[in-house]
Amino acid sequence: MGRPMRITFLVSVLLVLPALIAWGGEPPEPTRVKVAAVQILGYDKTDMPRPGFDPSEGVVRFVEKAADDGAQLVVFPEYLLGRITVPGPQTGRIARAAAAGKIYVVVGCWEVSQDGSFANTALLFDRSGKIAGKYHKVHAAVDHFEGEPPWSRPPQGKDDEWFSTNDPEWKMERGRDFPVFDLDFGRIGILTCYDGWFPESARILSLRGAEILVWINGRRGTVEDFLVKSAMFQDEVAMVATNQAYGSGTMIGQWPSQILAACTEPEEGYITASIDLEKVRKARRNSRNLRQRRPDVYGEIVGPIGTDHRPGK
């Protein structure tokens, strides 16, 4: 190595040495991340595959758009790809788009196994296009009874027999865990539709270190912003929620309770926003809400439901 090259090398080392010392030899954690959320039509809960209809084409279009916009993660709704095998042609197209854009992708499908069983699955693609994780919906959402709201009562008796035969959510293989996934910018957890109505779901993911909760939906009406805000506030997380375009409420939220962007109408939509991860991390480091928990008195949470009190009884 000649003298000019040695001098150049030494100068380069001296320039980067302070940064290396500050990092401890590792690059610093990102403090902000740009995410995208897509409200789009795909397969619904009960839809069977239809010739000529392939929602993965729309997914690829928005993956490319999100990557061009500088997003690091793009999230799609529940059910979207329909009944597919994993891996398969649909996931292959999405994998190639994720790899080309070097972007993380979350998208919902009915994942069908060789034995014919199926699960309501959220697929996570990493920046190389690999399926880096799956989340299987834990809580079965069944259609509401005629004239009653969907939260009125669960199937039972003859109703249970009907739902067991006709409702795919009642027949699906239900998840048994709430996994978290380490991405290169932070840790995420995934919930699917009805899971978000159970506060235990978000709390478990938060306790496992999730900084961003991804909540994918596929339902009529709107995703409830009050559920998003309460989960963010109580569990010290940011959130990305999606819905199919026959509904609305796709949104991106920043801790503690700010909605950064939202799709308010039942139509195709696409939003982006930058989440302040350092704000979330600071909240989690200093949270009284998490550190003053009393698990010793929470036993009833995992017990059977109590009997409702009736006056005079």
TrEMBL record:
<dbReference type="InterPro" id="IPR036526">
    <property type="entry name" value="C-N_Hydrolase_sf"/>
</dbReference>
<dbReference type="Pfam" id="PF00795">
    <property type="entry name" value="CN_hydrolase"/>
</dbReference>
<dbReference type="GO" id="GO:0050126">
    <property type="term" value="F:N-carbamoylputrescine amidase activity"/>
</dbReference>
<protein>
    <submittedName>
        <fullName>Carbon-nitrogen hydrolase family protein</fullName>
    </submittedName>
</protein>
<dbReference type="InterPro" id="IPR050345">
    <property type="entry name" value="Aliph_Amidase/BUP"/>
</dbReference>
<keyword id="KW-0378">Hydrolase</keyword>
<dbReference type="InterPro" id="IPR003010">
    <property type="entry name" value="C-N_Hydrolase"/>
</dbReference>
<feature type="domain" description="CN hydrolase">
    <location>
        <begin position="33"/>
        <end position="277"/>
    </location>
</feature>
<dbReference type="GO" id="GO:0033388">
    <property type="term" value="P:putrescine biosynthetic process from arginine"/>
</dbReference>
